[in-house]
Design brief:
Blueprint (H helix, E strand, L loop, with lengths): L1 H8 L3 E2 L2 E11 L14 E7 L2 E7 L4 E7 L4 E8 L4 E6 L2 H10 L3 E12 L2 E10 L5 E7 L2 E2 L15 E9 L2 E11 L15 E3 L1 H6 L1
Parallel strand pairs: 1-11, 7-14
Antiparallel strand pairs: 2-3, 2-13, 3-4, 4-5, 5-6, 6-7, 8-9, 9-10, 10-12, 12-13
């Protein structure tokens, strides 16, 4: 009975579907400071299995980045309310691979240092970008098990769910930390564009 009680007490909570909200801060170069006010202080990711959508509010536009990680699928659903315009971009395989190539490639070493972060027991992992040699520390937990998402995927293979970590998006370093997780069903059709979205290429979107 004691063994059973201990097992239950330390049972890992598995979450297959829901939302996770991260606080986010950015390290910007001088040329990127122009966009500082557009970058969201929080990012909410919706996930179901290996499908994920990251929602960011950039002021004039609300952007939903949808990914199916195992199939290399990535799309952008852009809603510009002031212009009554909705745009969907499905990234080509070449564009997805170019984006991946621009990101760091990390290797990591798990340490013994532990810390409680937002209620999660975390272990520190030291990671190094094999391209640049830059080193960072991240904190992961085994209190929960949930699929990687658009924010956490770069550092999702270091022995636990990333709780406090660094990631990169188009050359911008992001320091992220889990704020809250909600185990809720994702609405039907949430990961797909509705009929009122106009299809564009990524190049056309960038030219707007």
């Amino acid at each position: 009975m004691l063994t059973m009680a201990l097992t239950c007490a330390y049972a890992q909570k598995k979450i297959n579907e829901g939302t996770v909200t991260y606080t986010a801060t950015y390290e910007l170069s001088a040329s990127q400071l122009l966009y500082a006010d557009m970058l969201p202080k929080e990012i909410t990711c919706y996930f179901r299995g290996d499908s994920t959508a990251a929602i960011t509010n950039q002021g004039a536009a609300i952007i939903k980045g949808v990914s199916v990680l195992k199939s290399n699928y990535h799309s952008l659903l852009v809603n510009i309310p002031a212009a009554s315009k909705k745009i969907v971009v499905v990234m080509s395989n070449e564009e997805v691979e170019q984006e991946k190539a621009a990101n760091p490639q990390f290797k990591g070493t798990e340490g013994t240092e532990k810390q409680i972060i937002n209620g999660y027991t975390c272990i520190k992992v030291n990671i190094t970008d094999t391209k640049s040699g830059a080193s960072y520390e991240i904190w992961v937990t085994n209190d929960i098990d949930m699929p990687p998402n658009s924010v956490s995927k770069l550092v999702s293979e270091f022995g636990g769910v990333p709780v406090r970590f660094v990631t990169f998006n188009r050359g911008i370093k992001i320091s992220a930390e889990i704020k809250e997780i909600n185990e809720v069903p994702i609405p039907a059709g949430f990961l797909s564009p509705t009929r009122d979205y106009e299809s564009m290429t990524f190049a056309q979107l960038q030219a707007l």
